Every structure is written in C-alpha cells, then in structure tokens.
Here is the input.
Amino acid sequence: MSVRTNIREINTIRDQLSKKNAEYFDEVIVHIRSSRVQENSGEEWLLARGQELLSAQKQGKSASKLFGEDPVAFASEALLHLPQRKVSGRARLSVLVPWTALSWTFLLLGLTALIVPEAEETNTGMLLVVVIGAFALIEVLMRLTRRDPEEGIPAPPKFNLRGIGTVLIALVILGTASLMLLRITPVITIPYWVSLILAGVGFVGQVLLFRRR
Here is the structure.
C-alpha cells in the first residue's frame, strides 16, 4: 500500500481505540514520524502496531500492557530496527541553514553600513550566534510540528512536550552563553562592499544547494 493509504488505515484504527489506548498510540505515532525513519517503513510499522493494538483491545488488553508503560521508549526501541533515511539530505540542510542565515546577516550589515558607517564594525561572536541560532530555530520548528494523521502533513503542535521542553531549556542556555560570548569575542571591520559581496555569494550558493538532489 502507498504511504497515504497506510496513514488513512492508521487513522481508521485510531478512531476505534479507547481514549487511553488512542493517547498511547498517538505518542508512538508522533515519535516515529518525527524521526529519520524511512516514511514507508515507518507507516507500515505503525499500521501493524495499530492492528495489533486494536485486536488486543477487543480482548480487553490495554496498550501499556501490550507494548509497555512508556510509549516513547517503545517507539525508540522500534527505531533501532527500522531503516533510516539517507544522511545526505540532513547534511545538505546542515550546510544550507547557517549559509542562509549568514547570507541575510551580511546583506543587512552591508545595507546598514551604507547609511551608518559605524555598522561596519562587527562582533565576530555575533556571527557565531547567528549560525547557532539558525540551527536552534530549525530544531524548534521541527519539534513543534507533527504530521496530521489523515494526510501526513505538518499540523499544530500537540504532543512530544518532553522534547519541546528540552529545546526551550537549551535555548535559554544558548541565550545566556551568547551574551557572555559577545563580551569576549573581538570586533572586526567589514566594509559594506565586502558584506554585500559575501551576501551575493551566499545567495548564489543557496540556489545551487536547493537545486541539488
């Protein structure tokens, strides 16, 4: 079956589960779909577990009794045996995210320096904060989204509060560390035309990265 068909079958099963079993299964679904598991394999595994749970429910058995008390631990164990997506896409994203952030940063610095010459003085720590902040933003957005059980598309956050809390704590730590970093990193002068050239090179590079398959 196709991924879309599997998702719809899973949704049909969820509608037949008791409230407690559905909540358990929802956590499993979110954990699997927010991982790097191959989509088709992940949905097939979820469908099989849903069928197994529905059958067990008819016999009076709960999800926690069938799969264990912790749904996240159960899903994490399954991920160890499911095929993962290739790293190439993730690696390209790791280059694209800071590249894009720095391109826009240099563009803003260059344009600002045209009006305010003092803006040519740039704290090197700020550039580092931009890169780290870009990674943090992407991570937060990924954790704050889940797939709609019917269509498999991003939907408003609902689950995985543990992961979201972890990211928020990390952001607080990052913000504190950034303020300390800006106090000790050197200030350098980047002429406005250099900033604009760097921005131009960055935008051209983004186009090339987006076109790669």
Q: What stands out?
A: The chain has a mean pLDDT of 81. The first strand starts at residue 121 and ends at 123.
